[in-house]
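Hey, I was hoping to borrow your eyes for a little while. I've been puzzling over a protein and I'd love to understand its fold better. The fold is given in discrete form, as structure tokens running alongside the sequence. I'd be grateful if you could look everything over and explain what you see. No rush at all, and the record is pasted right below.
>
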Amino acid sequence: MITKNLKAIIFDMNGVLIDSNTFNANLFREIFGSYSKEAGEKAAYHYLHNGGIPRKKRMELYLREFAGVEPTQEEVQKVLDKFSELLNKRIDEISLKHNVREVLKDKYGSCLLFVSSGALVQDAKRILEAKGILKYFKEVYGSPHSKDKHIVEILEKYGLKNDKVLFIGDSIHDKEAAYKTGVHFIGMITEENTWEGYDIPVLVDIGELMEFSC
């Protein structure tokens, strides 16, 4: 596991920085439950077991596969707006993961810190600001672009070498984005994903990053 000489750390948001996987699953259940109870349950289950997908793409998938509705631009925007509306009303229910604030304070100024999220950028920033940690990040990236595109842009924009960048995520999609772009990856263990069967370094608590140096 890489523990020193890093230049940048990229964090997934849901499940890594904030404890919001169950919260988000409940929002998807409510939104798609308006089409049918089955659609709501399928959307919630899929979200919990398939993190890292850009939200716009996720909405298109759920509309088509679970709700049986053509994902037109208008229909997709409707469910995206509904998600943002519910998020804004209930943002106080979301909490930071253990030791997140301490890690960000420790790495700020010595490592470039970024967020790569499947959430809409404006929603991600709203959550991070509400939790008082937006100030620690150089930039926040989100939907509709994929995480491998986020990483490529970070590498190019900031002149970073792949082997000096670490991406921390909690889903197979996060892992694939890291491997595709050649950066280091560490899996965050969550209730939904223990990384059993994967030969990768993992974190039980993000506080373990205090041992890493930039």
